[in-house]
User: Which sequence fits this backbone?
């Protein structure tokens, strides 16, 4: 692990520990540097502000594990890892999602998951001779994305009472069922023009 990454993780850990005790809006860069034993110059070398820091945490802990496993057969592993991370740092994520900034995270999360669903659905339909126009992959991807990301965000905001394994299984079933529906739609696309 590079020295820069070690420093970023130390800053993130200091920030995370503060958000468990203090409202996000009240945390300053000075608070963060004091919590992790670094100076302000070091903080600003790695991050512009606390918003860039929170983006870095979200990306590395939540988005990256999902994007690394976007294949339909491996998605559940990435989802489960993400849910376990969310649960392990529940106070941080609950506090972070109860700030005005949370809208940015929600949009970003939906956007990333929609792209992943689009890739997965593209792979499902590649084997069929008919054009992908038979089904609106963009619409279906966005629909699934809002459902899955919205369910995860709701799970966070309601205190993460259900286990990560239970939530991951439900999401896996939705993705698997969607794959089956898209495949069936393509196999029968010559017989019917019904939509997914």
Assistant:
């Amino acid at each position: 692990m590079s020295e820069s990454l070690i420093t970023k993780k130390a800053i993130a850990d200091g920030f995370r520990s503060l958000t468990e005790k203090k409202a996000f809006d009240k945390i300053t860069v000075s608070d963060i540097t004091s919590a992790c034993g670094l100076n302000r110059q070091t903080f600003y070398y790695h991050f512009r502000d606390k918003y860039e820091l929170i983006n870095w945490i979200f990306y590395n802990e939540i988005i990256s594990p999902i994007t690394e496993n976007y294949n339909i057969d491996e998605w559940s592993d990435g989802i489960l890892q993400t849910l376990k991370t969310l649960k392990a740092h529940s106070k941080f994520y609950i506090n972070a999602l109860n700030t005005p900034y949370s809208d940015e995270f929600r949009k970003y999360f939906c956007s990333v998951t929609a792209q992943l669903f689009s890739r997965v659905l593209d792979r499902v339909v590649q084997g069929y001779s008919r054009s992908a126009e038979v089904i609106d992959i963009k619409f279906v991807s966005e629909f699934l994305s809002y459902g899955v990301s919205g369910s995860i965000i709701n799970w966070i905001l309601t205190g993460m009472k259900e286990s990560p394994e239970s939530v991951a299984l439900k999401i896996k079933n939705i993705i698997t069922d969607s794959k089956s529906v898209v495949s069936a739609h393509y196999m029968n696309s010559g017989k019917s023009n019904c939509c997914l």
Q: What stands out?
A: The CA atoms of residues 66 and 78 lie 5 Å apart. Residues 102-125 form the longest helix (24 residues). Residues 190-196 have pLDDT under 50 and may be disordered. Residues 54-187 form a domain with the Tetracycline Repressor; domain 2 fold (CATH 1.10.357.10).
